[in-house]
Amino acid sequence: MKPVLEGRDVSRSFGGLMALHRVSFQLFEGEIVGLIGPNGSGKTTLFNAITGVFPPQEGEILLDGKPISRLKPFQICRMGIGRTFQIVRPFLKMTCLENVLVGIVGKDEKGTSREERVEQALLELEFVGLGGQSHRLAGSLTLLQKKMLELARALATRPRVLLLDEVLAGLNPSEILQALHMIEAIRVKRKVTIFWVEHVMGAIMTACQRIIVLDQGRKIAEGPPDEVRSNPRVIEAYLGGADA
Amino acid sequence: MRKLVGVLLGFLVLVWASDPWAADTIKIGVVGPRTGPAAATGKAFEEGIALALDHINASGGVLGKQVEVVFEDTGGVPEKAASGFEKLVTRDQVPIVVGESHSSSALAEIEVANRYKVPFIICEAWHDDITKKNYKWVFRAGPANSGVVDFYIAPFVKDMGFKKVAIVRENSDWGVGIAERTEYNLTKMNIPFVTLKVEREAKDFYTELTKLKAENPEIILAYIYGTGLHFFLAQAHEVGLAPKALVLDGAGPPSLWESFWKNVGDAGELELFISSMHQDVHLTPTSRKFWDDYKKKFGKDPSDYKTRSIYNVLLIAADAINRAKSTNNEAIVDALEKTELEVTTGVVKFGLNPGSYEYHQWMPPMLVVQWQNKKQVVVYPKEAATGVLVRAK
Amino acid sequence: MKRAGLAGVFLIAILVPFFLNQYWLHVAIISLFYVMMASSWNLIAGYTGQVSFAHAAFAGVGAYTSGMLALYGGVHPALGIIAGTLLAGVLGLGLGGLCIRMGGIYLSLTTLGFSEILRIIITNEEQWTRGTMGLQIPGVFSVYSKTHYYFLFLAVTLAFLVLMRRLLNSDTGLAFRAVLNDELAASTSGIDTVRVRLMAFTSSSAMAGLAGGLYGHYLMLITPDIPSLGQMFLVLAMAVIGGMGSFAGPIIGAIALEFLSEYIRIYGEYHLLLFGLVALVIARFAPSGMVGLWEKIWRRR
Amino acid sequence: MSEFLMFLTNGLVMGGINAISALGVSLVVGIMRVINFAHGEMYIFGGYLSYQLAVGAGIPPVLSMLCSVAAVFLGGLAIEKWLIRPTYGDEMYSLIITFILSIILQNAALLIFGPYPVKPPSLVFGATNIFGLFHYGNQRLLSLALAAGIIGAIMYLVRRTWFGKSVRAISQDREMAAMLGVDHLKVNMISFGLGCALAASAGAIIAPIFPVTPSGSGAVSLTAFVVVVLGGMGSLKGCIAGGVILGVLENLGAAYISTDYRHIFGFIILIGVLVLRPWGLFGKRI
Question: Is the ipTM of this structure higher than 0.85?
Answer without folding.
Answer: no
